[in-house]
């Protein structure tokens, strides 16, 4: 397979270790003082343990192989101490430890996670100069780095060149591009990309479909989202709570409360239990339309399923009553909250303060706040 040098990659590579060294030193000092999650690695309890092992390894003669070093680098990456890994790789290079594709991929990933995808491409260039063949992981990591920086066009170009040179992208590569397109609001392109995945033999899963449906909903393209939802169902892909949440939220935002309630019922019929987030969306939407009896029905249904209102639910109710000028009713809701052990938050109090001030009820507000 021929080596790929993408068009977005420049032939004169910055000397990434030298120009980044000062920044890395500061980051590394912070990283080294933070303990990692003990569950992240079976071998090391925290980053200090890993660094102690690393120090022992670099003091050995002859030096261990790169395979042994990557056994230390990988857990530190999982602990998210990216700057520390970059610093370690620098020491390894100074000592003459040759990289392999796996260690290069680790280093590229660390630069991308630190927001320096340009340095990641410098490492990529060094790989090619040294004759180390990049793999799908190399390109996927760079694509992900570009997507994180919202450079979607460059990410898509690298993806296309990767395919054109003979590399076969995996599901992670496809998902990375799809997520990037959706995060930047490229809904139409995301729908086309979903079709392209299928044409190339990758069947999008529920996560992929939900990602695009959410993007369409946020762009106000509810009909297109529902079409994609129907297409997904025809293909036998079962929607999950995320899929339903996106559609119900979009329906409520467009004033389609009845359709949203029907979708909720469909969700329950499919043995998917709605969560408090979905119920709060419905309660808020119905209250905005003045559908108080429907709100009470939703709250009753929610409670029958063992889901109790939370501070967000109560704040929605308080806000709705205040906007209707029913401030005494809003105060009763706050009292009920407190009796149930749910402490009103700053949002709840702000709603009450604004309502009392608008109605010229400042003296009563003082009494309320001291209760």
TrEMBL record:
Pfam families registered for this protein in UniProt = PPR (PF01535), PPR_1 (PF12854), PPR_2 (PF13041)
InterPro entries xref list:
PPR_rpt, TPR-like_helical_dom_sf
Entry keywords, A to Z: Repeat
Q: Which residues cross the membrane?
A: none
Keyword Flavoprotein carried by entry? no
- The ranges of the PPR repeats are 100-134, 135-169, 170-204, 205-239, 240-274, 275-309, 310-344
Q: Member of which family?
A: Belongs to the PPR family. P subfamily.
Q: What is this protein called?
A: Uncharacterized protein
Native organism is Gossypium armourianum
């Amino acid at each position: 397979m021929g080596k790929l040098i993408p068009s977005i990659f420049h032939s004169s590579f910055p000397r990434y270790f030298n120009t980044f060294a000062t920044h890395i030193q500061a980051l590394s000092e912070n990283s080294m003082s933070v303990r990692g999650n003990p569950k992240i690695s079976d071998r090391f309890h925290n980053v200090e343990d890993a660094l102690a092992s690393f120090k022992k390894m670099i003091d050995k003669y002859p030096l261990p192989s790169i395979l042994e070093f990557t056994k230390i680098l990988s857990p530190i990456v999982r602990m998210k101490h990216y700057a520390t890994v970059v610093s370690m790789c620098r020491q390894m290079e100074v000592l003459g430890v040759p990289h392999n594709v796996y260690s290069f991929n680790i280093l590229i990933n660390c630069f991308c996670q630190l927001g320096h995808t340009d340095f990641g491409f410098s490492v990529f260039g060094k790989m090619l100069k040294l004759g180390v063949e990049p793999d799908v992981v190399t390109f996927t990591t760079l694509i992900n780095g570009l997507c994180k920086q919202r450079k979607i066009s460059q990410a898509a170009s690298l993806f296309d060149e990767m395919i054109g040179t003979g590399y076969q992208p995996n599901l992670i590569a496809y998902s990375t591009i799809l997520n990037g397109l959706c995060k930047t609001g490229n809904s139409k392109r995301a729908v086309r990309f979903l079709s392209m995945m299928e044409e190339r033999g990758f069947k999008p899963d529920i996560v992929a479909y939900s990602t695009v449906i959410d993007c369409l909903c946020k762009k106000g393209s509810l009909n297109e989202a529902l079409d994609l939802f129907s297409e997904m169902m025809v293909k036998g892909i079962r929607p999950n709570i995320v899929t339903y949440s996106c559609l119900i939220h979009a329906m409520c935002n467009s004033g389609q409360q009845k359709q949203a309630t029907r979708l909720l019922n469909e969700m329950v019929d499919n043995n998917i239990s709605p969560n408090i987030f979905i119920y709060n969306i419905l309660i808020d939407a119905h209250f905005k339309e003045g559908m108080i009896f429907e709100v009470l029905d939703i709250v009753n249904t929610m409670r029958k399923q063992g889901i109790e209102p939370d501070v967000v639910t109560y704040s929605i109710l308080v806000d709705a009553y205040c906007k209707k000028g029913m401030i005494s009713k809003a105060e009763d809701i706050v009292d009920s909250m407190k009796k149930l052990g749910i402490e009103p938050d700053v949002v709840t109090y702000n709603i009450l303060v604004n309502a009392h001030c608008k109605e010229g009820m400042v003296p009563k507000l003082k009494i309320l706040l001291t209760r």
